[in-house]
Structure formats: structure tokens, C-alpha cells
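In the previous lecture we treated proteins in isolation. Real proteins rarely work alone, and many bind small molecules. This record shows how such a complex is specified: first the sequence, then the SMILES for S-adenosylmethionine.
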Amino acid sequence: MSEYLFEQAWERERRRLDALGTMYDPGSFAAIERLGIGPGWRCLEVGAGSGTIARWMKTKVGATGTVVATDLDPRFLEPLGAEDVDVRRHDIVQDPLEESAYDLVHARAVLQHIPQRDVALARMIRALRPGGWIVIEDITSPSPLCHPELPVWAKVLGAVDAGLRRNGADPDLGLRLHAMLSAAGLRDVDCSGRVAILHSGTPSIEFVLLSIEHIGDRMVAAGAVTADELDQALLALRNPGFTTAAATMIAAWGRAAS
Ligand SMILES: C[S@@+](CC[C@H](N)C(=O)[O-])C[C@H]1O[C@@H](n2cnc3c(N)ncnc32)[C@H](O)[C@@H]1O
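The predicted 3D structure, ligand included, written as C-alpha cells:
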């Protein structure tokens, strides 16, 4: 199994993934709609998390289309089985996957966490039918600027970054996606980015708070930040008026030759 830092057994992981969806789903839907998703399409959602995108895809492809939603740990996807989504426990690096089968393959905030991301991407591309589209979304690291000033914020962000990299993740993968899809020989490769502005009390800041809380003990144990610095940051993020910019989410897409 591939390593994954934000394991789903954590008691608030469902909330964290829902907050991620609230923050980024509208942009993901727009990126996919531009490619023409519609009735009859066969879609694969890799690392589907809480399943918000797979559920939306099913509404688009209708009864004549299919949606397969995979995850290393599909516990939050299981209810989608009743909505005619094919839910699979599946490691994109090594478990069997159909080839030349899908009109659309999508993965958001997944490849960045997978050390063998080149293998995973090649397998996703082989799963495309001739002319099928792949859409990959990943972030680049956020800026440490915030209002009001919070001197420990840069250190906390640096600790998150270091924790991800220690686990083989690439927190700047978004910047490399266009080049990766082009190098893979895909056609019509392009990309776009979006930045959520985080204010205290919104789902976006909830995602950041929960992410820090999920791996906080491990960041302290690694000596990247002290427990006191972490508490200062978490308190400041909850204070009314705190504003900062989230990571930039970059969507890159391309299509297999017809
Ligand atoms: C940050 S979450 C993103 C969830 C969802 N894609 C979203 O954007 O809302 C990353 C997801 O990728 C899954 N994942 C990590 N490594 C994986 C792998 N090798 N194969 C399949 N899923 C994986 C995790 O279990 C988790 O659900």
C-alpha cells in the first residue's frame, strides 16, 4: 500500500474532506464541464475521498453513463453504491485497472500525496479511451502572508510542508502538472488555477485548521514546530478577522490521441 499522511481513521477526517470539497468543488466542476461531460460518459474518480465529485459526475452522466470511485480507504464512499456509483477499494499505484476504458479520469489532491506519482499517472492515462480526457488537480504551497500579522504562521506552514515531503508528498506538484501531461504525449494540454481566500469561521479555514490538527502531533514530534507555536497559530486562525490565502489549486487537463 502507498503511504498516506492524512489517514481516514482520524475521527474528524470526514469533516476535513467535506471542507475541502466546499472550498474546491465549484472550480473542479467548472473545469470538468468545460470538457463536455454528459450523458453516457464513462468516468473514473481516483482517490475520491468523501465522494462529492463522483456523486456530481453521476448526475451528469445519467443512467447510460458510469462512474467508478476509488480510494485506498473507501469508507466515506460506501453510501454512493446506492446511487449507482461503482465504489472500489483501490491503490492507483498497483491494483488492477481497466485500460482504454474511460472518457474521463479525474483526481484532485491525490497525486501530490503519492511518492510513485509517475506510475500512478501513467496508469490513469492508459485507462483513457482514445480521445478521453484526464483532469489532474493539485496544489502549490500557500503564501505565509496573512492579516493580522502572525509571525509563527510561516513556521507552521514550513512544518506542514516538511511533514508532507518527509512522507514522499510533493506540495508543489500543481506547478509540474502541465509539463507532466505534455511529456506523456497527451493532446490539447492546458491548465488553470484558483486561490481560495481564507477567513476565520468559513469552511476553507476549517480545512486548514483540521489539516494542521490532523498532523500536529507528528510535526511537534519531528521538532519542526513547538506545541506552543502550533497553539498560537490555531488560536489566531479562529480569531474573527483573520485572513490569508490558501494554496493555489491548479487543474491541468489533456486528452488521449483519438
Ligand atoms: C486530500 S484527499 C482528496 C480527496 C478528494 N480527491 C477530494 O479532492 O475531495 C486524498 C485522497 O487520496 C486517497 N489516496 C491516497 N493515496 C492513494 C492511492 N495510492 N490510491 C488511491 N487513493 C489514494 C486518500 O485516501 C484520500 O481519500
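Summary for your notes: The helical segments are 13-33, 52-61, 117-126, 151-166, 177-183, 203-221, 227-238. The chain has one domain: 13-255.
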